[in-house]
Amino acid sequence: MSAAAPRPGPLRLGVLGCSAIARRRTLPAIAEIPELTTTAVASRDPAKAAEFAARFGGTPTGYAELVEDPGVDAIYLSLPTALHHEWAARALRAGKHVLCEKPLTDRGERTGELTGLARERGLVLRENFAFLHHPQHAVVADLLAGGRLGEPRTFTATFGIPPLPASDIRYSPELGGGALLDVGVYPIRAAQLLLGAGLEVVGAALRIDRERGVDLAGHALLVSPGGVFADLEFGFQHTYRSRYGVWGSAAALALDRAFTPPVEHRPLLRIDEQDHAEERVLAPAHQFRESLAAFARTALDRDPGESAWLDAAEETARLVDAVRERAVRAPV
Ligand SMILES: NC(=O)c1ccc[n+]([C@@H]2O[C@H](COP(=O)([O-])OP(=O)(O)OC[C@H]3O[C@@H](n4cnc5c(N)ncnc54)[C@H](OP(=O)(O)O)[C@@H]3O)[C@@H](O)[C@H]2O)c1
Question: Which of 88, 186, 197, 283 is deepest in the core (most CB within 10 A)?
């Protein structure tokens, strides 16, 4: 089935999976977005669906019923990563737009199948990398384009979080766990954003949990077609760190809280030159709300620029596969 004609809105959203992120971030933010309304919430557990529906609105239902519901225009999918492919494919085949939690899938081939379905059917398919909606990155991109740092030589990015409860989905290989897919994808996507397409992985290392078989941390070295290096670190065995920097021929730039800044956070951008330092305080932003609102507007308007998101998702998946293939594994 292909997509219905554009409608005036709001976009009727079905929430697939009553996850922690849906409870904590997505559903509260939807209530603030006029272009979106929660029409149905699906869980494997009817009591959980009923609890979510009572709290956030919408009709409680099951996964299969939700994707076939004619009253639903779009699906927000926040299942464990290994289940994204199956359920996003079902939703796209049923003619629904899909906002899928990052990463879109666990393999490049599966991501390609989903982007193919979205292109073929003219549907919006986005990976919910909320950080891309924070205007702080456009400031950095403008500084780079304007030559403020001279020629960029190295991009460094780090995203790490403390250990999670033992039962967390991120420790399960069957559910698509591991640090690369959970936190590693952020530095990769940021490198794509600031260095452009065509990055190649030249080396990587992953620290593997011997018992559980998932990667707990990693490090990857990428190179851009113009010879700029991207040195990326990630993990969930660390103190919280979420930052990136660009080291250029004329100056170096550093941005802290780059991936998950709190809503009120006023980002601090620092530029260092040999004999001069400059700090700029930037505007705060609710990046999660912006991501949801942008998805809704795009789905309602059928934005023709949408294919850039599909290209970027394919590129992220290709790089994740390449990190896996090249990585030296250190069992711990
Ligand atoms: N964009 C962001 O900032 C952000 C932040 C955190 C997480 N995420 C992404 O969101 C996704 C979910 O993460 P989360 O931390 O919210 O996970 P979570 O709390 O464990 O939620 C996952 C949900 O998936 C459903 N599910 C279906 N089969 C399952 C199974 N076999 N085991 C466990 N759950 C199963 C469950 O919903 P029902 O019980 O209702 O069926 C569960 O609540 C991941 O892809 C993650 O990478 C994104």
Answer: 88
